Amino acid sequence: MPFLGKDWRSPGWSWKKTDDGWKRIIFYGHELEDNNKEIDLKALCSDNKENVFVGEVCELASTKRKKDLYNNNTKSQFVFTDKWIYVQKGSTKERHGYCTLGEALNRLDFSSAIQDLSRFNYVAKLFQLIARSQLRNLSGAAQKNYFNILEKIVRKVLDDHYNPRLVKDLLQDLSSTLHSLAIHVGRCVLVGNVNIWLCRLKTIHEWKQQLNNLHIPKQICNGVSFNELPLHTQNDILCKLSDACDIINLGQATPTLQSLSESSILWKKLCHFHFSDKQFCKNLVLSKSDHVDWKLMYFTLRKHYPMREQYGDTLHFCKHCSILFWQDRHLTLLLKDCGHPCTAIDPDSCLMPISPQHFIELFQF
């Protein structure tokens, strides 16, 4: 296994001169991070039955567990902030190997993307899909980076109160997957010590509790409140929502909003936004008066067909260069920068937005 550190070369062993001669110093966890601080061997060599002596080096089973937990909590040593990566699906004379999902997760700057509200939902949905089916296909470094970014996502929700429902669903799917892998399937499909995964499962449970206990304070507004807006303006705002749960929750605020949220025209627009006319014909739902019950129609169609995904900003893929990248909309408008070193005559014609599901399919060989 190659040495992974701040320097690609192994720093070698560290030695300490004692009265009995030179003795090797053993480092654990934070000692490596704190520039080779010394560790007291006498503290390790106790009468504990867990101690395992190998020559002059005494290794404690409990110390190893602490080291494993430390490695789980330590941030990735290599942090990439690439705006684009080359997606290679096979070996050629010029390039050998291929790009994996874990490599894309490590190299693309997802940590900065979650700070942008237009990209937050996209990253959270992508992480939810990875949690459902692709988690054990990631490398050890990619899994570690995945949980580091996930922690930042949870921190942002707790600090900014932004879209907690989406992150709750993400943590629920991840918890179910980890429980299945760590408890039922076993360690054969997991990278690393099973104790690390149990620790991660405990951390996810704590995050879920923090989100369930999240209290969003009431904002004090000195201007016009939502209830003071004209009815047609409130209705227009409801029509801009693409999530049925948001419409239902908003309808529980006031009796007026409850009446507007039950509008048949509102649910008809929502059905036409997410589904096609062909799908309507196969699942037509009529009320007692032989009229279409659009609200019931929406929830019926949602059981059979995927809903239309809508994101403020997504990753883009250049079909000419085979490059996956974040496109900065401001630079695109001001400098006419396509976001990557494209060699096409018309770069805009080669760009293709990538949905979270398409992102995962892009790395399936």
Automatic annotation (TrEMBL):
Keyword Cytoplasm appears in the UniProt entry: no
Question: What's one GO BP annotation on this UniProt entry?
Answer: protein ubiquitination
Q: Name one GO cellular component term.
A: nucleus
Keywords on record = Nucleus, Ubl conjugation pathway
Main subcellular location of this protein, as a coarse class: nucleus
InterPro entries with a match to the protein in the record: F-box-like_dom_sf, FBX25/32
Q: Where in the cell is it found?
A: Nucleus
Q: What does this protein do?
A: Substrate-recognition component of the SCF (SKP1-CUL1-F-box protein)-type E3 ubiquitin ligase complex. May play a role in accumulation of expanded polyglutamine (polyQ) protein huntingtin (HTT).
UniProt name for this protein:
F-box only protein 25
Please name the taxonomic classification of the source. Eukaryota, Metazoa, Chordata, Craniata, Vertebrata
